[in-house]
């Protein structure tokens, strides 16, 4: 199965083509953009296709990071993935950024439990604990730093992702999180096809219902 | 070029998620094959206005299903269309990204060209789809986001004659409604209340009446409404009705003056046009009192008053598909797939910035 993986959830804009039958990455591009993912992504898809010598209709599955991460970034990737899926008549699979971080970490530390955690700023952390076999222990959540510290301690202390630096007393500021498209593609290949990819925000829109604006009525 | 062209249109610039398939024959006649609109009114009503992040979240969850529905209703497959047209500005950036990215993915996967459409151009050309109007004509766009009088000379050839220097007219309706405790959206609520009110009870300002330039201003009127209402609070049913009626009357008189001058300028500029027309677009165009004012005004000046059906006046994807068809038909180049969404994108690139100054440039 040929998987097209797309990631625009963080600073990177990435695309990769993966051949599941051969367990091989056919082509891969990652650029650290910060912003402008919506302009770059489709050209990047064309570049990996041409490098792999494939046409888009060879793609049998789309994998995309659904967050948590930049709201706009997540929607850029999810909208593109759902558009490709619709046009090609193939399934699209959503993978969380926390799953990518955990799987990437596990490839270097096999068999160890880990908490994948992203510094969400404003005193919050997006986190999820994973067991030694890579399966999630619980659902992804947004936590304050203290609750995150406790979660990490309960699961052996290993942390994958930018929030690790929040546990250190002092030190260099963490690098932004990166979600390697090769890891994403393998996870998307293995994932069951359940429903369309849906953004995972873990944070409500910043809006309050308006009250007290109207004049009093008799 | 084939005699029949078909385009899939996508619109996500504000709080309507929309997809549509429109065809254009060799004579330039348009047929709407499907026109699907999902309004997010419910999601935003508690906030008394459109919340950009809530809008963007709703667009991304709904758009692909709507596109599928539009294709099915048109009995059309993606491979049967000649191009994809998606709104790429101006509007709320979160929604624009969703629509444009979806459009790009569809275009790349189907091998069809992509037209990145200016939302205002969609409104400007709608009357050619509904009424087969010839160029040139005048277009009044009155919505929650825009208040503009535009000379439409041809496809891609627009001159903005007037715009609001502060609030959009739809915004003034919404804020008046909010002040009076009427539900969102304010337009229909204010119109309903006004029907039972006395328009002469409050003497509200008619902004810019008498000025030769064709711009609009509604923030002073909004303040005057607040002051008049505060002075008599607590408000009874009849008070609310009278305020609404007085507000609507002031708006009518402003439009009457502003648009009247626009019609005269059009006459002077195009004496050879025998059947001049004024087209209205935007949600505020649904207001019957204002429509009546414009209708009378047009009759007085010998203009045809063209008001497309309500579903094509408010935000929709048929107008985006149609703008794409017009561009395709005159041989305009499609857009590259790295085209940017633009929250600000004036239809008339030469027009002076009056609102939304700053490093991102003119709003619209």
Automatic annotation (TrEMBL), chain A:
Signal peptide start-end: none
GO BP term (any one): tRNA threonylcarbamoyladenosine modification
Keyword presence, Transferase: yes
Source superkingdom: Bacteria
Enzyme Commission number(s) of this protein: 2.3.1.234
Keywords: Acyltransferase, Transferase
SUPFAM superfamilies hit by this protein: Actin-like ATPase domain (SSF53067)
Molecular function via GO: tRNA N(6)-L-threonylcarbamoyladenine synthase activity
Gene Ontology, cellular component aspect: cytosol
Database matches in Pfam families: TsaD
Lyase listed as a keyword: no
Coiled coil (UniProt feature): none
Gcp-like domain sequence ranges: 34-151
UniProt-listed InterPro entries: ATPase_NBD, Gcp-like_dom, T6A_TsaB
Protein name, UniProt field: N6-L-threonylcarbamoyladenine synthase
Organism of provenance: Gellertiella hungarica
High-level lineage: Bacteria, Pseudomonadati, Pseudomonadota, Alphaproteobacteria, Hyphomicrobiales
């Amino acid at each position: 199965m040929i998987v097209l993986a797309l990631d625009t959830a963080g600073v990177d804009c990435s695309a990769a083509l993966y051949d599941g039958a051969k367990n091989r990455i056919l082509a891969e591009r990652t650029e650290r953009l910060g912003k402008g993912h919506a302009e770059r992504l489709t050209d990047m898809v064309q570049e990996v296709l041409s490098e792999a010598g494939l046409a888009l209709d060879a793609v049998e599955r789309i994998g995309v990071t659904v967050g948590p991460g930049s709201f706009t970034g997540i929607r850029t990737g999810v909208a593109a993935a759902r558009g490709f899926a619709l046009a090609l008549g193939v399934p699209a699979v959503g993978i969380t950024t926390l799953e990518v971080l955990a799987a990437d970490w596990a490839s270097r530390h096999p068999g160890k439990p880990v908490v994948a955690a992203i510094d969400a700023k404003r005193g919050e952390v997006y986190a999820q604990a994973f067991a030694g076999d890579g399966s999630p222990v619980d659902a992804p959540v947004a936590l304050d730093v203290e609750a995150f510290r406790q979660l990490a301690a309960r699961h052996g202390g290993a942390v994958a992702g930018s929030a690790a630096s929040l546990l250190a007393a002092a030190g260099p500021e963490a690098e932004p999180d990166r979600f390697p498209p090769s890891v994403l593609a393998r996870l998307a290949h293995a994932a069951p096809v359940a429903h369309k990819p849906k953004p995972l925000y873990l944070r409500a829109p910043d809006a309050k219902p308006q009250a007290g604006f109207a004049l009093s009525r008799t | 070029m084939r005699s029949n062209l078909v385009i899939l249109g996508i619109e996500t610039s504000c709080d309507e998620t929309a997809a549509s398939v429109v065809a254009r024959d060799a004579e330039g006649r348009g047929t709407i094959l499907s026109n699907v609109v999902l309004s997010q009114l419910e999601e935003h009503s508690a906030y008394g206005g459109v919340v950009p992040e809530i809008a963007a979240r709703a667009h991304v969850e709904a758009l692909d299903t709507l596109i599928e529905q539009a294709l099915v209703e048109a009995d059309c497959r993606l491979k049967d269309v000649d191009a994809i047209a998606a709104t790429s500005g101006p509007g709320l950036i979160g929604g624009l990204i969703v629509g444009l990215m979806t459009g790009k993915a569809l275009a790349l996967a189907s091998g069809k060209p992509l037209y990145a459409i200016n939302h205002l151009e969609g409104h400007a050309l709608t009357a050619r789809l509904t009424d087969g109007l010839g160029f040139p004509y005048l277009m009044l766009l009155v919505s929650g986001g825009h208040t503009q009088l535009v000379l439409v000379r041809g496809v891609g050839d627009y001159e903005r004659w007037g715009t609001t220097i502060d609030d959009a007219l739809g915004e003034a309706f919404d804020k008046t409604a909010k002040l009076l405790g009427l539900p969102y959206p304010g337009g229909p609520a204010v119109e309903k209340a006004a029907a039972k009110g006395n328009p002469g009870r409050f003497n509200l300002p008619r902004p810019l009446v008498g000025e030769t330039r064709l711009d609009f201003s509604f923030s002073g009127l909004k303040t005057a409404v607040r002051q008049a209402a505060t002075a008599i609070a607590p408000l009874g049913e009849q008070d609310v009705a009278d305020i609404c009626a007085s507000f609507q009357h002031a708006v009518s008189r402003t439009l009457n003056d502003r648009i009247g001058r626009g019609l005269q300028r059009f006459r002077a500029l195009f004496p050879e046009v025998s059947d001049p027309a004024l087209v209205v677009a935007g949600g505020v165009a649904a207001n019957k009192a204002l429509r009546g004012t414009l209708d009378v005004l047009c009759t007085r000046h010998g203009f045809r008053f063209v008001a497309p059906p309500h579903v094509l006046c408010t935000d929709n994807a048929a107008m985006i598909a149609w703008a794409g068809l017009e561009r395709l038909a005159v041989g305009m180049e499609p857009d590259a797939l790295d085209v940017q969404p633009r929250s600000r994108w004036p239809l008339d690139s030469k027009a002076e910035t009056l609102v939304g100054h700053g490093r991102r440039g003119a709003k619209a």
